[in-house]
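Milestone 3.1: sequence recovery, worked example.
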């Protein structure tokens, strides 16, 4: 079941764009509804109640808001993977990620100090589409020897197949708070609606 408040916002304020893109910049990607982020974080806590994690992982920039809200409520550190190598970062893991919305590739990097073999992480992001960003996270965690205990997304576009790819890569727990079945003919169709 979708988180009702999120489902309602998607249907009321989401816009279908060219190429299977859902624009939600009124409440997620540009202007952010912090209360909605809190409600999403509470729902993630409920859904992942059975997993034990010591760190929330996300990727800049739109994953940061829900991840920080979750980290705050769970009193856990939040680490965001960067999409550009800072000059000051010396010892890092990196992986190449294809960006769906920007139609280009970038190197995702994380400081080795913030992802280690002791970590049991919950990865949080705004969207699961084709799964490229998440597969990058799987790769970074593999390099670090960290364990992914679960992945949580605000919105999953089921028709783009990211979940299947992640399952093939061994990610066991995937929770999406709203699953989009299709955006055909500019109609947003949400699963179980
Ligand atoms: P993926 O790597 O799974 O193909 O795409 C995930 C990333 O692309 C997310 O972090 C998100 O920022 C962006 N993204 C993918 N699809 C959409 C979309 O429909 N709308 C928006 N606003 N961002 C998207």
């Amino acid at each position: 079941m979708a988180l009702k408040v999120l489902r309602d916002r998607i249907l009321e304020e989401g816009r279908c764009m060219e190429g299977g893109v859902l624009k939600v910049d009124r409440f997620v990607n540009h202007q952010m509804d912090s209360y909605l982020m809190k409600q999403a974080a509470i729902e993630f806590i409920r859904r992942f109640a059975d997993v034990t994690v010591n760190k929330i992982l996300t990727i800049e920039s739109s994953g940061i808001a829900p991840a920080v809200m979750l980290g705050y409520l769970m009193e856990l550190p939040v680490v965001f993977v960067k999409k550009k190598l800072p000059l000051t970062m010396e010892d890092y893991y990196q992986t190449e990620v294809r960006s769906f919305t920007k139609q280009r590739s970038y190197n995702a990097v994380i400081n080795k100090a913030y992802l280690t073999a002791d970590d049991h992480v919950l990865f949080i992001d705004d969207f699961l589409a084709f799964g490229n960003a998440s597969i990058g996270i799987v790769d970074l965690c593999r390099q670090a020897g960290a364990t992914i205990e679960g992945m949580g997304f605000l919105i999953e576009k089921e028709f783009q197949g990211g979940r299947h790819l992640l399952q093939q890569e061994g990610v066991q727990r995937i929770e999406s708070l709203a699953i989009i079945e299709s955006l055909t003919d500019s109609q947003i169709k949400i699963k179980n609606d």
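The chain has five helices and ten strands. The mean pLDDT is 97.
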